[in-house]
Amino acid sequence: MNKLDRPREIIEYCLKPLALSNTTEEYKEVYRRLEHVIKTLQVMAAREKRPVAIDFSNMRTININEAAHGDDS
Q: How far is CA 70 from CA 7, 61, 62, 63, 64, in A?
């Protein structure tokens, strides 16, 4: 996977597995908030000369212990 550096690419990649309708007001509000956060972080990172791209291919796996969080099964 290529590194993503545009807020739109990052947001769409993250929201895609949820298969949400992008026409709802809730989706638009979440998108707007995420875009603001990503752009703000990118501006701050650029000031400190840090990379601003996201490489999702290097994500570590997160293991969730469902029993520890009240698994209902």
A: 34, 21, 18, 15, 11
